[in-house]
């Protein structure tokens, strides 16, 4: 259903654990996510604390889902004392399987979490297939 697209994410996570907060030598932290199947839907949740809904962009092209978000500075006339939360633009791409219906994605943003609900395509759902007996079917012989 879902393929991870960032082969360096685990390496970044390990580097952050060993050396602490990333500096100029490291890529920006990707937006953390959870993904799971809930019945006939695939659910993906992205953590985007401090991001306003108008700073989130969601695109689907073929089977590639792209989420872009921007955490902006507090204000122009503010003298920052401590700044530990990363600012700037973040993006994440997911390759979605052909079994998902990307035409009917539902997106909600609440309490800093972007939740996407992607329905399973009808053609991918299990179904029963009727078997018709034709002329070549074996006939029952009465004894």
From TrEMBL:
Pfam families: HSP20. SUPFAM superfamilies: HSP20-like chaperones. Residues 24-134 form the SHSP domain. It comes from the Bacteria. Belongs to the small heat shock protein (HSP20) family. This is SHSP domain-containing protein. It comes from Lentzea flava.
């Amino acid at each position: 259903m879902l393929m991870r697209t960032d082969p360096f994410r685990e390496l970044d996570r390990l580097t952050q654990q060993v050396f602490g907060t990333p500096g100029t030598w490291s890529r920006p932290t990707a937006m953390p996510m959870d993904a799971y199947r809930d019945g006939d839907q695939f659910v993906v949740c992205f953590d985007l604390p401090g991001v306003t809904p108008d700073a989130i962009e969601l695109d689907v092209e073929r089977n590639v889902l792209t989420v872009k978000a921007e955490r902006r500075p507090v204000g122009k006339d503010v003298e920052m004392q401590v700044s530990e939360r990363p600012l700037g633009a973040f993006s994440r791409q997911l390759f979605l399987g052909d079994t998902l219906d990307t035409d009917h994605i539902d997106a909600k943003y609440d309490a800093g979490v972007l939740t996407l609900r992607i329905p399973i395509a009808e053609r991918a759902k299990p179904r029963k297939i009727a078997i018709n007996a034709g002329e070549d079917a074996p006939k029952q012989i009465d004894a």
